[in-house]
Specification:
This protein is of the alpha/beta class and 251 residues long. It has helices at 35-43, 60-72, 88-98, 126-130, 134-142, 190-194, 217-233; strands spanning 7-9, 19-24, 46-50, 81-86, 106-110, 173-178, 199-204.
Length: 251
């Protein structure tokens, strides 16, 4: 499957949808690369839509932005509404929220790029640089769902490099970033999250650039679901499961 057409997964039959997640892929990625992630969240009764790569598809940034807006404004769309993005998809999600182009309840940003870096990657090692999950690496190499060689600074449109007023992003933001991301080193993007009023940044052990498809993709998806469940209780993200101290009892 090599189509760029948007994909969608719905909540299981008999369950009420708990919210809507619109996912923006990164450079060179087709929507099908997010099938595992989409199905996993849909199993927890979240309705998931994945649109095309805004930097290289037929629609371009303006077309994809209009498509996102249409999905978020659809009649009887279950709430809350969350905009999620990976790589340049994260840049666009952040931009749409900062400019007020869409109305969302939260953002999930994965592998946010440093737009000042030349991120050119040898195509022969690109799958390893993108993801630490062996199964996802094979998908990147063999499925036709990736345009290799897209991880360049030139592939980031000028509109996504323009400075943003981060203080204008007033919704909760969950950041997910690999501690082994050589394409966008985490120390170079911490300042972005520190400039967001309501952001939490999680690091993923041995996570590379695509942390949604890291070796620990189950834990990453679970972290996203926990964030969404807290969001359903309010924008202040009330704690659902807390940790308390206690002396371990002998067996």
């Amino acid at each position: 499957m090599t189509t760029n057409a948007p994909l969608a997964w719905s909540e299981p039959a008999g369950l009420a949808a708990r919210g809507t997640l619109v996912v923006l892929p990164g450079r060179g990625e087709r929507p099908g690369l997010y099938e595992r992630f989409g199905r996993r969240l849909a199993a927890d009764a979240y309705r998931v839509h994945v649109v095309e790569d805004p930097t290289g598809g037929d629609e371009g940034i303006e077309g994809v932005s209009a498509q996102v807006k249409s999905l978020l404004e659809a009649h009887e769309r279950p709430g809350p509404a969350i905009l999620a993005g990976s790589d340049t998809g994260a840049l666009l999600a952040l931009r749409l929220a900062a400019l007020g182009s869409v109305t969302v309840d939260a953002l999930v940003l994965a592998g946010l790029p440093d737009t000042t870096l030349d991120t050119s990657v040898d195509p022969d090692s690109e799958a390893d640089q993108r993801a630490s999950c062996p199964g996802h690496q094979r998908l990147l190499r063999d499925s036709g769902l990736l345009t290799a060689g897209a991880l360049t600074r030139e592939r980031i449109p000028e509109a996504l490099r323009e400075p943003l007023d981060l203080a204008a992003v007033t919704v909760p933001v969950l950041g997910l970033h690999g501690d082994n991301d050589f394409i966008s080193p985490i120390d170079r993007i911490r300042s972005v999250y520190s400039g967001l009023p309501h952001a939490k940044l999680l690091t993923v052990d041995d996570g590379r650039h695509d942390v949604l498809n890291a070796s620990h993709h189950r834990s990453v998806a679970a972290s996203v679901v926990l964030f969404l469940e807290r969001l359903r209780l309010g924008s202040d993200l009330p704690l659902i499961v807390g940790q308390t101290s206690g002396k371990e009892q002998p067996a």
